[in-house]
Specification:
This protein has 249 residues and is of the alpha+beta class. The chain has a single domain, classed as Jelly Rolls (Sandwich), CATH 2.60.120. The protein has 5 helices and 12 strands. The strands form 3 sheets. Strands 11-10-9-1-8-4-12 form a 7-stranded mixed beta sheet. A 3-stranded antiparallel beta sheet has the order 3-6-5. It has a two-stranded antiparallel ribbon with strand order 2-7. It is globular, with a radius of gyration of 18 Å. Bound molecules: 2-acetamido-2-deoxy-beta-D-glucopyranose (NAG) (2 copies). The site of one 2-acetamido-2-deoxy-beta-D-glucopyranose (NAG) has 4 residues, from strand 10 and strand 11.
Length: 249
C-alpha cells in the first residue's frame, strides 16, 4: 500500500486571518502527470482509508474527488479554521501554532508519488486585497499588511479560492514537478450522521469539534483514483482513527 499526502502545500503562502469565525483554505491535487513522474504505469488507486490533519485552529476538513476533467482525477482538500482567539495572522507551517490542511490517502497498490499539494497564487490574492505585489515574495509580505475585519476576511477567503493554484507533486525519490490547477465548485454535501464515538477512549479529542463530512456524488468514467469514497474497509482501520471517517458506507 501507499500513502498520498494531499491538501495545502505547507508554506507561509497558506495564511489564515486573525479573528475569523470561519475561514476556508483549499489545496488541489491534479493527477494528470502521475504517470510520467512515476517511472512506470500507475495502476488505479484503490483507497481504503484517509487521515485528515490540521493544527489547533482547524474545525473541519473535507476531501472532494473530481472525475469529470479530461486530464484525470483531481482531489481537493478543503479546511475550515476558526481564529477568534488570535490577533495575529496564522501562517502555514510545521509548528502547532502554524497551520496545516492535509488529507493522507491510504491506497493500494502503491506507486512512487508521495505528495500532491496545491497553493494559491499569493500575488493575485494580495492584489485582490488591494495590496501592491509584483511577485510571490511581495505578495506574502503584503498579506501581513492587510487590516483584518469581517469584510477583508471574506475577501481573502474568496481570493484564495479563486486564485490560480500551483500543484507541487513529489515522488519518493524527491523528484518534484509543479503543475497548475484551480478550485472547482463543490457540490452540496450528502449529510450523514456522525459515528457514535462516545464509548471510545478518544471521545475527548472529538471535543475539538472536527466535522464528519460526506463526499459529493461522483460521476463514473474510470480514471486514476478509483472508488476513493465511500470506503468499505473500516475494519482494517485502527480504532483511534475511526472518528475521522464518515459513516457513509
Ligand atoms: C517507481 O519508479 C521506478 C523507476 O524510478 C520504477 O522502476 C518502479 O516500477 C516504480 N514503482 C512503482 C510501484 O510504480
Ligand atoms: C515548485 O514549487 C515549489 C514551491 O513554490 C518550489 O520550492 C520549487 O522550486 C518548484 N519546483 C519546480 C521544479 O519548479
Amino acid at each position: 500500500m501507499g500513502v498520498l499526502q494531499t491538501g495545502v502545500f505547507i508554506f507561509p503562502i497558506h495564511f489564515i486571518p486573525p479573528g475569523a469565525e470561519s475561514f476556508k483554505s483549499y489545496g488541489i491535487c491534479n493527477t494528470s502527470h502521475f504517470e510520467e513522474m512515476n517511472g512506470a504505469p500507475v495502476p488505479d488507486m484503490h483507497v481504503f482509508g484517509y487521515l485528515l490533519h490540521t493544527h489547533l485552529a482547524g474545525r473541519g476538513v473535507r476531501g472532494v474527488l473530481y472525475r469529470n476533467g479530461e486530464q484525470g482525477d483531481e482531489f481537493l482538500v478543503e479546511c475550515r479554521y476558526q481564529t477568534l482567539d488570535r490577533t495575529e495572522i496564522t501562517f502555514g507551517g510545521l509548528s502547532t501554532l502554524n497551520e496545516m490542511c492535509l488529507a493522507f490517502i491510504f491506497y493500494y497498490p502503491r506507486n512512487n508519488i508521495s505528495s500532491c499539494m496545491g497553493y494559491p497564487n499569493i500575488q493575485q490574492v494580495a492584489n485582490e486585497l488591494g495590496q501592491e505585489a509584483s511577485d510571490a515574495i511581495e505578495g506574502m509580505t503584503a498579506i501581513d499588511l492587510v487590516e483584518w475585519n469581517n469584510e477583508t476576511i471574506k475577501k481573502a477567503e474568496k481570493a484564495c479560492k479563486e486564485a490560480d493554484q500551483t500543484v507541487v507533486i513529489k515522488t519518493i525519490d524527491e523528484l518534484v514537478r509543479n503543475e497548475t490547477g484551480f478550485i472547482r465548485e463543490i457540490a452540496d454535501n450528502i449529510q450523514v450522521p456522525c459515528k457514535d464515538i462516545s464509548r471510545t477512549r478518544i471521545a475527548s479529542q472529538a471535543k475539538r469539534n472536527f466535522e464528519h463530512q460526506a463526499f459529493p456524488p461522483m460521476t463514473s468514467k474510470a480514471h486514476k483514483i478509483k472508488g476513493i469514497f465511500p470506503l468499505p474497509t473500516l475494519l482494517f482501520i485502527p480504532l483511534g482513527f475511526t472518528w475521522l471517517f464518515t459513516s457513509s458506507m
